[in-house]
Design brief:
Layout lengths: L1 H11 L1 H22 L5 H36 L1
Length: 77
């Protein structure tokens, strides 16, 4: 069910789609940092910053999902 809600939102909710795309970009950048053998001090700071940004985006996406579920539960009830 979570995947279907997420798929619906990706297809129909512009803000959710934008957040998901941004989250994916951060995930890709983080992956490229993780693949490095050693990180410079700047890269270490960037890694921490990206992790925090990803969490913020994930929280925003979860709020939109919860709001979507609540609105659909109200319509069904």
């Amino acid at each position: 069910m979570v995947d279907s809600v997420r798929e619906q939102l990706l297809a129909s909710h512009e803000e959710f789609r934008r957040l998901a795309q941004e989250h994916n970009r951060y995930s890709q950048r983080l992956e490229s940092l993780i693949e490095k053998r050693y990180l410079s001090d700047e890269e270490k700071l960037e890694e921490v910053k990206i992790k925090k940004l990803k969490l913020r985006l994930k929280d925003e996406m979860q709020m939109i999902e919860q709001e979507h579920r609540r609105s659909h539960e109200t319509q069904v009830a």
